[in-house]
Automatic annotation (TrEMBL):
The modification N6-(pyridoxal phosphate)lysine is found at residue 202. Its cofactor is pyridoxal 5'-phosphate. One of its GO terms (biological process) is methionine biosynthetic process. SUPFAM superfamilies: PLP-dependent transferases (SSF53383). It comes from the Bacteria. This is Methionine gamma-lyase. It is an enzyme of class 4 (lyase). It comes from Simplicispira suum. Belongs to the trans-sulfuration enzymes family. CDD domains: CGS_like (cd00614). Keywords: Lyase, Pyridoxal phosphate.
Amino acid sequence: MTHLRTRAVHAGQHPDPASGAIAMPITQSTAFAYGSLERGAAIFAGEAEGYRYGRYGNPTVAALEAKMADLEGAEAAVAFASGTAATAATVLALLQPGDELVFLGPLYGGTEGLLRSLGERWGLRVTDATATGLAAALSPATRMVWVEPLTNPSLQMHDLAAVAATAHAHGAITVADNTFCTPCLTRPLAHGIDLVVHSMTKYLGGHGDATGGLVAGRAAHIAQIRKTGLGHIGASLAAQEAFLFLRGIKTLPLRMGAHCEGAQAVAEFLASHPAVRTVHYPGLPSHPQHALALRQMEGGFGGMVTLELARGERSAAAGVLNALKLFAQAVSLGDVDSLACHPASTTHSFVSPEARAAAGVGEGMIRLSVGIEHPDDLIADLDQALASLAA
Ligand code: 3LM
């Protein structure tokens, strides 16, 4: 299986040996019989493979983990109840009080909020290297570097190979939150990154009906993150949710193609509209890192488009957002349905006004998650909403 489209369907799954079922069965069981005291003891000691209790693992969840490890090119993966749980487990498993985490932002507001409130309370130093650049921010205490290859919400790009080389020269682990790109468009491990984090809630699920997260990377790291995140924190993904992600991922490459096509058309339309000051989309030649996008992204530039209105105040953004008919006004992203949000008052309301300003998240910014509807209908909706601004 060499092609991603084939692996998205088949990796991690095979017909159920008991029934022949092709869809992965939902194994709805809390405990798993291990048969003998000796085998139970060996499983609990980590000396034998096997399921024991739902918090530690489940066959439906394991199939999802295997599928995602395959798609990301990783040795192993572990699933969580949300992307935020995956982030928290990675940080808490691999860092100690006194360690420094350096991030290249801007980041999803919830991630930055988590790092600052939880991380700093537990004795981590958290440093934002966005303005200074990574090399200048690294110190002897730096143990982890966190990056979003395509940032939320401003859609800036980070050069993953350069980040990995700089961080590794200082002995730091690198983590890339690949939620916006998915393995269809970017595989961070192939660029030298150590761990990939996902909010599966977004493109991987794809239908806006399941919440989950995942970390993929080397087996030794994943074993540590699994122990902390599942064994100690208990942020385990439920089997029913794992089933929805397994089903969603089968069509991920097809959906990403439609998201990319629609987003490119929407971005080109917005770039020529007089009410729009700036369009952030890595597929536009005007994007400052278009050359990096061509090098680092494969098969398209993603389904997210962020715009800044010529009138930069909140009331202008409200005028446009409140007039949209086809785009639902909601946070989250990556659904087949198109969504639109005002990052300053929602996804990035968790970070300080200063950090928002530094990240370029202004009151006139609108973030679009372009769904798989026909691009002409999406453009018509945006056109009438922008026209209401001029009226
Ligand atoms: C959002 N983002 O609308 P969960 N990493 C990235 C993300 O964008 C997110 C997470 C992790 C949004 C959610 S905002 C109230 C809604 C790049 C989530 C966290 O824990 O599965 O939500 O993932 O930008």
